[in-house]
Design goal:
By secondary structure, the chain is mainly alpha-helical. The strands form two sheets. Strands 1-2-3 form a three-stranded antiparallel β-sheet, with helices on one face. A two-stranded antiparallel ribbon has the order 4-5. InterPro entries: Amino_acid_transport_2.
């Protein structure tokens, strides 16, 4: 119900409106309200959003195809160190999500507008330059992830067609599986109605859930659980290299403004939804790593990875745990089929969400609606811009493109968008603009100390990964350190 305070301000949900704002902004702030203007006090009766539904939305957004690359980076570090890193990364992402919620609540209360996305929040709190930096990180992340998904989705499709019909798409032309996969999914999204695409996605999500439950139930029964805790297989020094893909596997920040709108700015409900909703994928990722690593521990080339802590075999080939399970059938034929099903369904559901997200980002840049004649005029160009550039890269035949693309997206895209920028935006919101009205008190304790620690840690990760990707760290180890050691030896 709405209420009137002593100054004749109207309160809807958790927001206070002046009389001049009246019905128009009340409709925006109370998403599920039904209004009764005939009542003498002007009442607004609404059904508050469901915390469980919001948590489920976060869980569904988080569970993506990034999970397919996780065992490849977790195995060189070991199950225990990688599990510790997953838990810490989850806590970091959960705090970042709550910070984004705080920004969304304040922006919603200040403007009366729902649906303010990540890019608009960045422009609002960081200005034009910050908005450009955030936009670059947004497009970089999404393009990198789409490259990875088109590459792996095409490979999975080629394997399925080869198993069923004996036809080898790879033999017909380089990149043909990726082109076929991109055309299939892209056409379904482009030509399909919103309801049809939603129905397809729901079926795929059901397939993801059922296949995951099946592979965990079967995989844990056949896994070598002792290998998971074997001290010889734990290499904590390799955890840093796993962090980019770990963070990609835990991303849900884009959906936070939607959750804030659904729960009408209720701090407690929003925090519960973010923490609880993101904890479910954390448990799934831990179980997933246990199944994959435990079932491959006895395989010679994978045993080599576990014992030496390197992601490459003596032959210089990067290990592909999911590929091993799918091609060799370790753990049984049923586990192999379940992993293949989960892999393809997870990629398709993730790709659908990414394409829609990029479509919305392009329409935001072009300042047009996502429907109507203006959108239909731009629709071919928008979809071409979303799919063709990553398809060119994905079909080039680069051997490690799936993991490397996700690694780059996590190191620079996720780190910038969801680890560095949220604490910076909250800092500006709380401390650098005394005239800005705040709708909510800080939702993350610790004040400046917490915010500073968050963005500095994320900045350090970006610098370290940048130096690693550019070969600077290897150069220092191979060229500089021996010289320093030689000088020290001469002085001693």
């Amino acid at each position: 119900m709405s209420s009137l305070d002593s100054n004749n301000h109207r309160t809807v949900g958790n927001f206070t409106l002046t009389p001049s704002q009246q019905l128009r902004k009340q409709r925006r702030l109370s998403r599920a309200a039904t209004y009764s203007p005939l009542q003498p006090t002007f009442s607004a009766i609404h059904a508050p959003g469901s915390t469980f539904a919001a948590a489920a939305l976060i869980s569904g957004t988080t569970i993506g195809a990034g999970v397919l690359a996780l065992p490849a980076v977790a195995a060189p570090a070991g199950f225990l160190p990688s599990s510790g890193a997953l838990i810490l990364a989850w806590a970091y992402m959960a705090v970042g999500g709550v910070l984004l919620a705080e920004l969304s609540i304040n922006a919603l209360g200040e403007t009366g507008r729902t649906g303010l996305g990540i890019l608009e929040l960045q422009r609002r709190y960081l200005g034009k330059a910050g908005g450009i930096a955030g936009g670059f990180a947004y497009f970089f992340l999404h393009y990198a992830v789409i490259v990875a998904y088109l590459s792996q989705g095409g490979s999975n499709l080629a394997c399925a067609i080869r198993d069923v019909s004996g036809l080898d798409l790879d033999a017909l032309g380089r990149g043909l599986p990726q082109i076929f996969f991109s055309a299939s999914v892209g056409s379904a999204i482009y030509f399909g109605s919103k309801r049809a695409v939603e129905a397809l996605n729901n079926v795929m999500v059901g397939g993801v859930i059922l296949s995951f439950l099946g592979l965990v139930a079967i995989g844990l029964s056949t896994a070598d659980l002792g290998a998971l805790i074997n001290p010889e297989f734990q290499h904590p020094e390799n955890v840093v290299n796993a962090l980019p893909i770990i963070f990609v596997s835990l991303v849900f920040g884009n959906i936070v403004p939607t959750v804030v709108t659904q729960l009408e700015g209720d701090r407690k409900k929003i925090t519960t939804a973010i923490v609880g909703g993101s904890a479910v994928p954390l448990v799934m990722l831990l179980a997933w790593n246990a199944v994959i690593i435990g079932n491959l521990a006895h395989v010679p080339e994978f045993y080599e990875v576990l014992s030496t802590g390197t992601a490459f075999t003596d032959a210089g080939k990067q290990i592909d745990p999911i590929g091993l399970l799918q091609s060799e059938g370790h753990g049984g034929v049923l586990l192999k089929d379940l992993v293949a099903t989960f892999s393809e369904f997870a990629i398709v559901t993730s790709l659908i969400g990414l394409v829609y997200g990029m479509r919305d980002a392009f329409t935001d840049v072009l300042k047009i609606s996502t429907e109507g004649k203006e959108f239909n005029k731009w629709k071919p160009a928008i979809f071409a811009g979303v799919l063709i550039p990553p398809l060119v890269v994905a079909s080039a035949g680069y051997e490690h493109i799936f993991i490397d693309a996700l690694d780059l997206g996590g190191a620079f895209g996720v780190s910038t968008l969801f680890l560095v920028l949220p604490p910076l935006m909250v800092w500006k919101s709380r401390y650098e603009d005394p005239d800005r009205s705040l709708t909510t008190l800080p939702m993350v304790p610790g004040g400046k100390l917490t915010l500073g620690a968050l963005w500095k840690a994320a900045g350090t990760l970006i610098i370290e990964q940048g130096a690693d990707k550019l070969g600077i760290i290897d150069w220092v180890k191979e060229e500089i350190m021996p010289q320093i050691e030689g000088v020290i030896h001469q002085l001693s």
